[in-house]
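Quick start: read one record
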Amino acid sequence: MRKKEAQYLSKVADIGCIICYRLGYIGTPAEIHHIRGIGLGMGVRNSNYATIPLCPEHHRGNTGYHGMGRKAFERRYEVTELELAQQVQEILNEENQDGEEGSQSYA
């Protein structure tokens, strides 16, 4: 992993769990979830820039992405992975208003 990728992932994780954020619990410690790319197999990880922060419960727990599966997760929280990724990008862009190079897009 390149230094720039590691810095980006750190910024993403620093947001806190994006589901908790949407539920009003800002700053919940988060793990990095790689968004499944269209056409990628189960064992293939997407780019480090195609990520969202999820707490352990929303990532691996019974009410999380890997615990419920993508479709059930998106139904329960009424949002898609791509919509969550877009929200993460918006948050990062707000934090990056000082003119530095912006975050990379995954789409």
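DSSP finds six helices and two strands in the chain.
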